[in-house]
Specification:
Length: 471
């Protein structure tokens, strides 16, 4: 929205400055911004076939003729006027660059870039939402597995109860079998004693004492029956002892089955509980990243709007001053700010930790755009003006802390943020290299001291490193 308003403002300026431009030139300016508009200042200007006075003249341009600047070489400009292309001398007083029209195209390009950046950031948020939805789906799947496990727990408990019941029956059978074995062992012991005594008397003596033949046969049959019964008792005793061993083995097997079921249940429960905790942690992290990304985007956009509004207000004031100063003779000794591109000194001695342009939030991964650079330095390090000018603003801007904005004329500004102490007040004239503040961390999201530095022209931020002297 801010960029749209800014572009609209530039449209008005462009209309005022292009009163003399032809409709053809206006159409040319609606392209991709690769050319720059210009107006002939000299009463007559020769267009040559190459950038040298020895080259042939292919046309003569009159004062206020509109042209397009397609390139430059030393002091010569490669231009197009109507359908004719050639070279003209571009020194002071010969060609006036139509900054407003060029800046309009630049503003349009920047507006498109901002819209693209915002679109990319929204896409990042959409991706975070997709990740959150995926995590929620996985969590729902795990919850279904846990519900199924709860159902299986009931079956496992039923099986376990049935095993316990069988184990109890087996234990009862073992106890009864032990009692039966004890009885049979007692009987067998008494029978062995009896047989031992009978053996000492002798079976023949027992039969010989029979009073008759019938008594003899009765005694013989009784002895045989007793011996046969004793053999059956002893055989049954052996069988029950074997059955007791089988019952013990069955009880051990049933106990092992129960332990196996319990172990399987516990392992599944722990595994699913671990997966549930993992998915819940993932979901919480994604939701936090999404919230952080949205909050950070909102904060950056709000801070950028506040800075745009401040610059726009200052530009309006500067426009009034410019109009008053137009009637005054220009200061020939003072060069314009624009002539110092690549020659300015660093505003503070320190290390650049954040650069101009696109960047990605380290924690959330959200993409955004930074209008300036950040220079790390110790608390209290002097901050110096990079060029002569006037302090247009010296106060607090939310998101940037204590800020000084210096106007350098021709709609050029430098911005110094996160300051600790301010040594320049609004309206003060400052010189290049003059200490105007100290480094701090006011309005910063971190506790580390850092200087935020911007270069702006007609409200549009520019890469400060293009203006700073290399090395």
């Amino acid at each position: 929205m801010i960029l749209a308003l800014f572009a609209a403002g530039l449209v008005v300026l462009a209309c005022e400055s292009l009163v003399h431009a032809s409709s053809e030139s206006a159409r040319d300016l609606s392209g991709d911004g690769s050319v720059e508009a210009g107006v002939v200042d000299a009463s007559a200007l020769r267009m040559r076939s190459c950038p040298d006075t020895s080259c042939s003249v292919i046309g003569v341009l009159q004062q206020d003729n509109a042209l397009l600047i397609e390139g430059e070489e030393d002091d010569w400009l490669k231009v197009r006027h109507r359908d004719t292309r050639g070279w003209v001398y571009g020194g002071d007083g010969y060609v006036r660059r139509d900054v407003a029209a060029s800046e309009l195209e630049d503003a349009r390009r920047r507006a498109r870039e901002k819209e693209q950046q915002l679109s990319e950031t929204r896409a990042d948020v959409d991706r975070l939402e997709e990740k959150a939805a995926s995590a929620e789906a996985e969590l729902a799947g795990i919850e279904k597995d846990i519900a199924a496990l709860r159902d299986s727990i009931g079956r496992i408990r039923e099986e376990s109860a049935a095993i316990e019941e069988r184990m109890e029956k087996t234990a009862n059978e073992i106890e009864k079998t032990r009692e039966s074995i004890a009885e049979k062992r007692d009987y067998a012991s008494r029978r062995l004693v009896a047989l031992y005594k009978l053996n000492r008397l002798g079976a023949m003596n027992l039969l010989a004492t029979a009073e008759s033949v019938g008594d003899l046969f009765r005694r013989k049959a009784a002895i045989e029956a007793i011996v046969e019964h004793d053999g059956e008792v002893i055989g049954a005793l052996v069988e029950e002892e074997k059955r007791l061993e089988d019952l013990h083995a069955q009880a051990a097997d049933e106990k092992a089955q129960k332990e196996k079921l319990e172990n399987r249940y516990e392992e599944n429960r722990k595994e699913l509980a671990g997966q549930q905790r993992q998915r819940e942690t993932l979901l919480a992290r994604i939701q936090k990243e999404k919230a952080d990304a949205l909050a950070r985007i909102e904060e950056l956009e709000a801070a950028a709007r506040r800075m745009d509004e401040t610059i726009a207000s200052l530009e309006a004031q500067e426009e009034k001053v410019r109009k008053r100063a137009e009637a005054e003779p220009p200061d020939k000794e003072q060069k314009a700010f624009s002539e110092y591109q690549g020659l300015l000194k660093m505003p503070v001695r320190g290390r650049i930790v954040s650069r101009y342009g696109k960047y990605t939030e380290p924690h959330s991964g959200a993409k955004s755009f930074k209008n300036g650079i950040e220079i790390s330095a110790e608390h209290g390090t002097p901050v110096r003006a990079v060029f002569d000018g006037e302090t247009s603003f010296a106060d607090w801007i939310s998101g940037f802390g204590r800020v000084i904005i210096v106007s350098h004329g021709n709609s050029y500004y430098t911005v110094y943020g996160h300051l600790e102490e301010l040594f320049a007040d609004e309206g003060d004239a400052v010189k290049a290299g003059e200490v105007i503040a100290t480094v701090g961390n006011s309005g910063s999201a971190t506790a580390k001291p850092v200087l935020y530095f911007e270069v702006r022209h007609r409200g549009s931020p520019q890469d400060p490193l293009d203006w700073i002297e290399k090395g």
